[in-house]
Write a structure and sequence with these properties.
single chain; 251 residues; 7-stranded parallel beta sheet; alpha/beta; Rossmann fold; binds NADPH dihydro-nicotinamide-adenine-dinucleotide phosphate; binds 2-hydroxyethylsulfonic acid
């Protein structure tokens, strides 16, 4: 395998994954909406990195951008569906509807745009690897996780269903399901730029880093091609799933 496409490459996990895959010897296409950030990364990473301005929510644009990729960045062997976001953490009855819609359009619809466009060429060549960025939020409910968690539950089940459809083909699919990870823009985006609230999430916690996730992707793509990790749940030692709650009425 030598060509990877990583969505959400302008920040966080995506940027760290691009750096690691380039260091491992892959050619990497990095996609995201902020071209300036991708161009900065291109300056750092050199000619084996191709910055691609891409909004995963725009189906027609995704199709035409992928068709216009330079010949030496085709065909795509590894697709890392990483672009995604959480918006808000209010209870469902106070949530902003546009936030819900954006999460669904990005985390679900954006992810299927890329997959639908790239998977047929992998099947034609009987070769490829799709790595999706799910979340522990797709398995464990937590307060205010509502649509974000549900979107990641889609990613989890879609990954499992892809594996099923690909039985008999040499194409691998993994859903990486991280817990609390710092050093990214995730919480700044979630809290609409409230830096103090975002910083609070990580205060006093030894969190997972983007480099931890990048090393995980690097390990996955370098495992033998007969070997498939279906899903990988990763938490910092400082986090556990302990969510059962009971409300007691007091008299
Ligand atoms: P960041 O906010 O740092 O990065 C998100 C990336 O997604 C950015 O590069 C952003 O680029 C891109 N993106 C957002 N919307 C779009 C869009 N419409 N089209 C193209 N790219 C888009 O967050 P993380 O690195 O932390 O998150 C990466 C993934 O990992 C997400 O899917 C997230 O849900 C998941 N995750 C994160 C965890 C965490 O605790 N940090 C834990 C579990 C999962 P741009 O704005 O330039 O378009
Ligand atoms: C990000 C992890 O716990 O904020 O997916 O949902 S969490």
């Amino acid at each position: 395998m030598n060509i990877a496409l990583v969505t959400g490459a302008s920040s966080g996990f995506g940027r760290a994954i691009c750096r690691k895959l380039i260091a491992d010897g892959y050619k990497v296409i990095g996609g995201g909406r902020r071209l300036d950030k991708l161009q900065q990364l291109a300056e750092e990473l050199g000619n084996n990195f191709f910055p691609m301005q891409l909004d995963v929510t725009k189906k027609d644009a995704v199709e035409s951008i992928l068709l216009q990729l330079p010949k030496d960045f085709q065909p795509i062997d590894i697709l890392v569906n990483n672009a995604g976001l959480a918006l808000g953490q209010e209870p469902a009855y106070q949530a902003n509807y546009n936030d819900w819609q954006t999460m669904i359009e990005t985390n679900i619809i954006g992810l299927i745009h890329l997959t639908h466009q790239i998977l047929p060429s992998m099947v034609e060549r009987n070769f490829g690897y799709i790595i999706n960025l799910g979340s522990v939020a797709g398995t464990y409910a937590y307060k205010g996780g509502n649509v974000y968690g549900a979107s990641k539950a889609f990613v989890k089940q879609f990954s499992a269903n892809l594996r099923t459809d690909l039985l008999g083909k040499k194409i691998r699919v993994t859903n990486i399901e991280p817990g609390l990870c710092g050093g990214t823009e995730f919480s700044n985006v979630r809290f609409h730029g409230n830096a103090e609230k975002a910083a609070d999430v990580y205060k006093g916690v030894e969190y997972i880093t983007p480099e931890d996730i990048a090393n995980t992707v690097s390990w996955l793509v370098n495992t033998p091609t007969h070997f498939n990790v279906n899903s990988l749940e990763i938490m910092p030692v400082a986090q556990v799933p302990a969510g059962l709650a009971v409300y007691k009425e007091t008299n």
